[in-house]
Design goal:
binds iron/sulfur cluster, 23 helices, 6-stranded parallel beta sheet, alpha/beta, about 50% helix
């Protein structure tokens, strides 16, 4: 496969992207159908509300306990994996992670990497980095393979090609894969993709995967998948590289079962996935298969910023199920590409500011009606609306204001005129006398209310003060009541 272009959607252009996405009837139709399907599947997977509540509480407790001990658990994970024969690497940012991964591939003079699903590899733009250095990286998850073939980014963290119709995929395969007849038959399309990918596993110098849970007590990397491609990537090539964010570590093996159940049921309504891989190290003497080298790359890339703040740390509880996206009235209408980030939807709105800085993501925390659906379905009870409010506050906080844990890009959306207006509003609301004067002035001068009121009048009628103040209305009603009695 030739080098794929990286399609970047600058997150600062979020509003324009969202507006454009809303005019795309085909996208709206595909998303609506897919999201309704996923929501129904999740609902059916949790028929007992009490069991769900107990499981969510357990999931939250596990994630919070593990995060509270994150530094020591990471050290324990490294120690156990090293004892198992694996090699652990630490990456402060995307560039360092890419350099480490390329270094491992280059040490074998490798030219081909086959990849299982890994959102972290999307986050660091690994394919692009490797392609620039003459290394072909092929996605083997069918959805990822489709978007790679189309030169796009995933639009959903669980279902990367959910925006594509059967016809889109049929056309794509016909146009991009040599000697492929046009067919809309789903089974045939899957067979075509499989045929191409089987060969890639055999040719690959290195297999790369993500990690769902990294168990500190045993040094075990757990990988959840349905297609078997994850197992092929991690066992067929001689070298396996796993790449993950530092937050994925859990303390004990027994922590995995409830999180796994929450993950698969919340994501796609399945009690379990077809494959659950547990990787503890390279092939041992006498074993007939498995990689000869296993590497784990642990990526920070802004996560320690979230970790250092007690409230924002909850962001790192995420187990990447995608349920918040499926239930978000914004995501379900505009899809993932409009966000311009690796992680779209509510989880993207709360994690991206740490990964990319508020200066690049300042509009994202405002892409929410704060209806609360995301927080209600989150299997590990992340209070997403609270996080969104906090990030909005941080993007409005003046850049020079000193706080205990400043966020990168603090004050990116700060607006002196708006702050002055809110300060004036606070003073009016805090003083009964000022409030009355303000009310009188607003009602008497109502005909001068502007017809265009910033973003509000793009979709609403202009706001006009009432003809009388509340005090006047109450006084009139009281006078009428006394007249009647
Ligand atoms: S924030 Fe919660 S609902 Fe959203 S992807 Fe993460 S775990 Fe799932």
């Amino acid at each position: 496969m030739s080098e794929q272009p990286v399609t970047l959607y600058p997150s600062r252009a979020f509003k324009d992207n969202a507006r454009l996405a809303l005019t795309d009837a085909k996208l709206r139709h595909s998303l609506r159908g897919a999201m309704d399907f996923l929501m129904a599947k999740r609902l059916a997977a949790f028929p007992d509300a009490d069991e769900l509540a107990a499981l969510r509480a357990l999931g939250e407790a596990i994630r919070q306990r593990c995060l509270s001990r994150l530094p020591e658990l990471l050290e324990q994970l490294e120690e156990k994996l090293t004892a198992n024969g694996a090699q652990v690497h630490w990456a402060a940012d995307a560039d360092e992670a890419n350099r480490i991964i390329h270094g491992i591939v280059a040490a074998r003079s490798g030219k081909r990497v086959v990849k299982g699903k890994s959102m972290v590899s999307e986050e660091i733009e690994l394919n692009h980095y490797l392609a620039e250095r003459g290394v072909e990286a092929v996605e083997s998850d069918m959805g990822e393979y489709i978007v790679q073939l189309a030169g796009e980014k995933p639009t959903h963290i669980i279902m990367p090609a959910i925006h594509k119709t059967r016809q889109d995929i049929a056309r794509l395969f016909h146009e991009r894969l040599p000697d492929t007849a046009y067919t809309e038959d789903v089974d045939t399309l899957i067979q075509i993709g499989r045929r191409v990918l089987r060969q890639k596993y055999l040719e690959a110098d290195v297999g790369l995967s993500g990690v769902n849970f990294a168990v500190a007590e045993t040094g075990t990397l757990c990988l959840v998948e349905n297609e078997g491609n994850g197992r092929m990537c991690t066992t067929v090539p001689d070298v396996h590289i796993a790449v993950t964010g530092i937050e994925k570590v859990v303390e004990k093996l027994e922590d995995v079962a409830p999180l796994y159940s929450l993950l698969t049921r919340s994501a796609i309504g399945q009690p379990i996935t077809t494959y659950f891989n547990m990787i503890s190290g390279p092939r041992k003497p006498g074993e007939k298969d498995g990689p000869r080298q296993v590497h784990l790359v642990l990526l920070d890339n802004g996560r320690s910023q979230a970790y250092s703040d007690a409230q924002l740390r909850k962001t790192l509880q995420c187990i990447r199920c995608g349920a918040c996206m499926n239930h978000c009235p914004v995501y379900t209408r505009i899809g993932g590409h409009a966000y311009g980030t690796t992680y779209p939807g509510p989880i993207g709105e709360i994690i991206s500011p740490h990964l990319m800085g508020l200066e690049n993501t300042r509009d994202l925390p405002t892409a929410s009606s704060l209806c609360g659906a995301c927080g209600e379905v989150c299997p590990v009870k992340i209070p997403i609306p609270e996080m969104l409010m906090r990030l909005r506050e941080e993007s409005q906080r003046p850049a020079g204001e000193r706080v205990a844990h400043p966020l990168r890009g603090q004050g990116a959306a700060a607006n002196a005129a708006e702050r002055a207006a809110w300060r004036g509003w606070r003073q009016v609301m805090a003083s009964p006398l000022l409030y009355r004067w303000f009310g009188l002035a607003a009602t008497r001068l109502r005909r001068f209310a502007p017809k265009r009121q910033l973003g509000w009048t793009q979709n609403h009628a202009p706001l006009t003060p009432a003809a009388k103040t509340l005090h006047e209305l109450v006084r009139e009603r009281e006078a009428a009541r006394q007249e009647r009695s």
